[in-house]
Structure formats: structure tokens, C-alpha cells
């Protein structure tokens, strides 16, 4: 939960502590070689990502590579593409359950 300063503005230090920075490996599009990079996701997004990977029997790195290279992903940043892929996974899962 965000905390606020006495003047009503958000306490940025408290807000940013909900983000977790982790290293992942993705495939560099030019060299085709693995490339270490870091992404910052909310704690709940990391939990969702671990859950998806466990269910799909894939590594977090594989999921992130797949999301990063997916041509349907039009988000600007790698982190945004990964976040959207997580959301899409759950949206598609719910659509399958509704069918």
C-alpha cells in the first residue's frame, strides 16, 4: 500500500519497494546469443510468471524470450511485453474455461 507525505504527494520510496528487479536471459535479435538483462516487475507479477512457467513446464527465461520475440507484442519495452504476455496468458486461460 502506498504511503503519502504530509503534503498529500506519494512517498516514492515506499511505492517503488513493491517492484522487484531480477535478471533474466533473452536471445539477442542480432547475434542470436543469450543476453543477460534485468526486468522489474511487481511481486504479484513475478508470482504469476512462476505459476505460468510451472504449469507450462518452461523456464522463466524461456517464457521471457517467447514474449520478447512474439510478433503480436507491440509494446515498446521488453518489460511491458512480458507483463502483457502474463496478462494474455490468464485472459486466454479464462476464455478457454468460459467456452
Give an overview of the whole structure.
The structure is a single chain. With 99 residues, this protein is α+β, with helices and mostly antiparallel strands. It is 51% helix and 18% strand. The chain has a two-stranded antiparallel sheet with strand order 1-2. The longest helix is centred in the last third of the chain and has 21 residues, at 78-98. The radius of gyration is 16 Å and the shape is globular. The mean pLDDT is 83.
Structural class: alpha+beta
List low-pLDDT spans: none
Distance between the termini: 36 Å
Largest sheet: 2 strands, antiparallel
> How much is the radius of gyration in Å?
16 Å
Order of helices and strands: HEEHHH
Strand content: 15-25%
Q: Write down the overall geometry.
A: globular
* Tally of strands: 2
Averaged pLDDT: 83
Output the number of helix runs: 4
What's the helical proportion of residues? 40-55%
Please outline what is shown here.
The chain has 99 residues and is α+β, with helices and mostly antiparallel strands. 51% of the residues lie in helices and 18% in strands.
Fold topology:
Layout: H1 12-16, E1 19-27, E2 34-42, H2 43-56, H3 60-69, H4 78-98
Antiparallel strand pairs: 1-2
Helix pairs in contact: 3-4
Keywords, separated by commas or semicolons:
single chain; 99 residues; alpha+beta
Amino acid at each position: 500500500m502506498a504511503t503519502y507525505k504530509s503534503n498529500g504527494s506519494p512517498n516514492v520510496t515506499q511505492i517503488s519497494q513493491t517492484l522487484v528487479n531480477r535478471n533474466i536471459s533473452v536471445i539477442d535479435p542480432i547475434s542470436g546469443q543469450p543476453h543477460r538483462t534485468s526486468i522489474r516487475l511487481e511481486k504479484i507479477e513475478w508470482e504469476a510468471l512462476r505459476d505460468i512457467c510451472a504449469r507450462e513446464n518452461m523456464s522463466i527465461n524461456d517464457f521471457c524470450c517467447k514474449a520478447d520475440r512474439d510478433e503480436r507484442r507491440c509494446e515498446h519495452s521488453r518489460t511491458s511485453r512480458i507483463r502483457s504476455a502474463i496478462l494474455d496468458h490468464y485472459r486466454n486461460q479464462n476464455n478457454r474455461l468460459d467456452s
